[in-house]
Design a protein that fits this description.
The protein has 185 residues and is of the alpha+beta class. It has one domain. 41% of the residues lie in helices and 14% in strands.
Length: 185
């Protein structure tokens, strides 16, 4: 009788250890799924904000015969509307003198970008606006930029919600950009 009781207690202890180990694995997997889904949502918001900013800036007002929204302030406002609707903070406007330099050397200023153009603060989007592959902060007069390239670039360092993900994931740089041809007649 005593032998059976001690054997049962040993099996209960083994089950408890197995449950504890498997629970930790399940918690880590769940944390990874939550952070992975959150990262995909952030990427989607960045893409949508870049698209909306470029669309807003490239539009042509036929009544005024000008691109009245083709300036940094109007484009940033359109981008920030989408960012806040998606749960991200307002973008920080960054135009250091040239368009972000791609790390692979492409001439169209498409991702991936060099580390200097990525924010060092997680979950803070940085906005770059390039007109015909150069920076300008002045609004275009009449049709000065007609049929030229407008590139709206958003970059953000992803900060995981939980600490379950290892450090390389916490250092992911997210980037979205969109090129549109500026309308005019």
């Amino acid at each position: 009788m005593v032998g059976r009781l001690s054997a049962r207690r040993g099996m209960l202890g083994q089950s408890l250890v197995e449950f504890a180990i498997s629970s930790l694995v399940l918690v880590v997997l769940f944390g990874g799924l939550v952070d992975g889904g959150r990262m995909l949502q952030r990427i989607d918001v960045l893409k949508e904000a870049a698209r909306e900013g470029a669309r807003h800036g490239a539009s042509f007002n036929a009544g005024l015969n000008s691109n009245s929204s083709l300036d940094d302030a109007h484009i940033k406002a359109a981008v920030d509307d989408i960012l806040t609707a998606g749960g991200l903070p307002l973008s920080s406007f960054r135009n250091p003198g040239n368009c972000p330099t791609p790390s692979d050397g492409n001439s169209l200023h498409n991702p991936p970008y060099q580390g200097a153009y990525m924010p060092n603060v997680p979950n803070q989007p940085w906005l770059y606006i390039c007109y015909n592959n150069s920076l300008s902060t002045l609004p275009a007069s009449s049709n000065a930029y007609q049929h030229q390239d407008l590139n709206v670039i958003l970059v953000m360092g992803y900060g995981p919600l939980s600490s379950f993900l290892p450090l390389p994931v916490a250092g992911f740089g997210l980037a979205a950009n969109l090129h549109l041809s500026i309308q005019g007649h």
